Please model this.
Amino acid sequence: FGSVDAKRAFAEHLIERGQYADAAEIFRSALQGQFANDVALLYGLARAQFLNGDGAGAQASLDALQAADPHFVSEDAHLIYARALELQGKDAEAAEEYKRLVPYYAGEEARTRYAQLLEKLGRHDEARDLYAQVLKNLDGAPSRYRSTQREWGNIARSALRA
Model:
């Protein structure tokens, strides 16, 4: 698979199979020459690194992506960035990223993960407010939305009962 597109497709296939380290290696091998700052490749690399437990690598790849394209905006990339910071124990920085992410993130995952981090940081009232917001957002929402967001609603409901 010589072409960059073939490498990217193969790396995505490896991610689907849970072979994150191998996927990261393929993405790295594609980030050469004119593709050294390719946004799709850098994002794929960051995803593979994060899924492989390499928070620092994911953060570095997403920083490189942002430097390559300062106008790039992706809620999924932003979520990985916040989670990568959290994975490294950079909880205060992660909280700031979640705070910036929550207003535009489609779905309840970012809000719920932010609440969980605030809970961990001892900011219980803020966390409870976010959990309550998750449940409010789900209450009366279309059934398809409630269905896709069920996991986050269950986490919020459990947290509020505790």
